[in-house]
Amino acid sequence: MSKVRATNKRSWVRRGLAAASSVALGASMVGLAAPAHAAGCSVDYQVNSWGSGFTANVTITNLGSALSNWTLEWDFPGNQQITNLWNGSYSQSGQHVSVSNAPYNGSVPANGSVEFGFNGSYSGNNDVPTSFSLNGVTCDGSSDPGGGDPGGGDPGGGDPGGGDPGGGDPGGGDPGGGDPGGGDPGNPGDKVDNPFAGAKGYVNPVWSAKAAAEPGGAAVANESTALWLDRIGAIEGNDSPTTGNMGLRDHLDEAVNQANGEPLVIQVVIYNLPGRDCAALASNGELGPDELDRYKNEYIDPIADIMWDYAQYDNLRIVNIIEIDSLPNLVTNTTDNAGGTELCDQMKQNGNYVNGVGYALNKLGEIPNAYNYIDAAHHGWIGWDSNFGPSAQIFYEAANASGATVDDVHGFIANTANYSALEEPYINISGTVNGQMIRQSDWVDWNQYLDELTFAQDLRQELISIGFNSDIGMLIDTSRNGWGGPDRPTGPSSSNDLNTFVNQSRIDRRIHPGNWCNQAGAGLGERPTANPEPGIDAYVWAKPPGESDGSSEEIPNNEGKGFDRMCDPSYGGNDRNGNNPSGALPNAPISGHWFSAQFQELLANAYPPL
Ligand code: BGC
């Protein structure tokens, strides 16, 4: 995982869409097919507007002979301006737009389709274009080859007429009875508002045994931790660190057993996107950047199939935590940011994070007892104004991609596998020291936030204001953000020097808030709890304590994991952590593997104490 952010945040307000976040309007969805006349092509243009921003998903159907490359052109009727586009490249001059294929989607067979999407900004009306041309020929073909929605759009779900490309549930159907019309059934209505309320938490026997085997570990071995499906093989149980030799089905059987007829939550981390962990190396995965089809067919579909088999268990609540770190990386770690990476550029350009997350949300959201929470980084990553709003926008984009809708999103999770403190009891972020604002301190560095609790609560409001449902709830991963032990401050510093005051008062004792790997001095945080604060569905232990964030030196492995120097205690840092030492513990195994020394330190520094 990367859990990183770039520096120079203050110069980042560059995306037109950022402004939309302050305009609280419900999303409107308009579907329109281009007028039909002669053969050649047809275009389905779906747009989702909010305030001054919008997302459009465009499907071109080729009604002529096979193409090896394509360019679609149109004129916007108003002042719409494209701000970023995926699955193609674009140019815009005034109202005229030209979009050409990406290197990987130029071939379109006769009667085949290809999709791309984009974000834009506008003012006034956001009318849809009335005419398109493909490779210079006006698209006058049948307006709706997929049997979609010629008239009134698709208010329920945004399935752009073509049904469920590639996804389908061929033969098996949805055992729960959902999805009768081919679209997205939305919230089936029988989901509870907060799945954690009144429910026990699943104790993963694989993690529990490792924790119990450590000295003092029995004190926490019965806590609920999440099950990470960190590769395709983990679905069947392949000795992956958190699933062990139990497959997803075995864990769900065990969950039914532990539930014993009462409500129980099992948390499953969906973590296998193509080009995973684009800004770091420690959790790179098995799928290459372009392997979205494998993600859908070999990863999400089998998981959904298994979960559907447990849909009958009303008391079993399956919380799916969706794709840690992925979407925020598209905001802060592309190369237009200091320290960005080309892989993040690629993942933004090819749309596979957005479309993969959308696909997961759509497929898993249909399951009546499954609850999707999207990963939302943490305050030390997207707490600056310049990336807070844009991150919310990209979550919204993903929640409307690949057939998903906001009804597939139950909430968001902050701080997954990170170390950011829940609260900083001795520092007021709006305060001053000797006439200088706390925000100016080196530690805060103009961030709007110092802690996860207010960050998560404010992010929730922001998400609701741009179109997410008003009953979404937040989770916060408190597995390793306790910061107790003998070095924990017991009150505010008495220093008059701003940086000394902040450094002596803060309970988060990392060298820099951008440090994310096996942090020395950390402790277990709040034990998992439902409904701890307004807007917060639960404190959870998403990262199983004791599982490494990454190896401190190069260790060959067959999991796709690289060596990230942010896990090397001798590393002096990079742009994303202000060129500070990594603060990582030595002698760490590769990510996900058991790290006994870290577990012992987490026990010793637990806060609240054990
Ligand atoms: C690793 C996964 C592991 C997870 C939980 C991630 O950093 O990449 O393999 O399952 O942590 O420990």
* Chain-averaged pLDDT: 85
Q: Approximately what portion of the residues adopt beta-strand conformation? A: 15-25%
- The CATH architecture term of the largest domain is Alpha-Beta Barrel
Q: Please name the fourth-level CATH homologous superfamily of the largest domain.
A: 1, 4-beta cellobiohydrolase
Tell me the total number of β-strands. 21
Largest sheet: 9 strands, mixed
* Class inferred from helices and paired strands: alpha/beta
Low-confidence stretches: 2-38, 143-189
How many structural domains in the coordinates? 2
Q: CATH first level of the largest domain: which class? A: Alpha Beta
Question: What percentage of residues falls in helices of 4 or more residues?
Answer: 10-25%
> What's the tally of helices?
11
The 3D shape can be described as: globular
Q: Measured on Cα atoms, how large is the radius of gyration?
A: 24 Å
Bound molecules: beta-D-glucopyranose
Organism: Thermobifida alba
InterPro entries: Beta_cellobiohydrolase (IPR016288), Beta_cellobiohydrolase_sf (IPR036434), CBD2 (IPR001919), CBM2/CBM3_carb-bd_dom_sf (IPR008965), CBM2_carb-bd_dom_sf (IPR012291), Glyco_hydro_6_CS (IPR001524), TAT_signal (IPR006311)
Pfam family, one: Glyco_hydro_6
EC number: 3.2.1.-
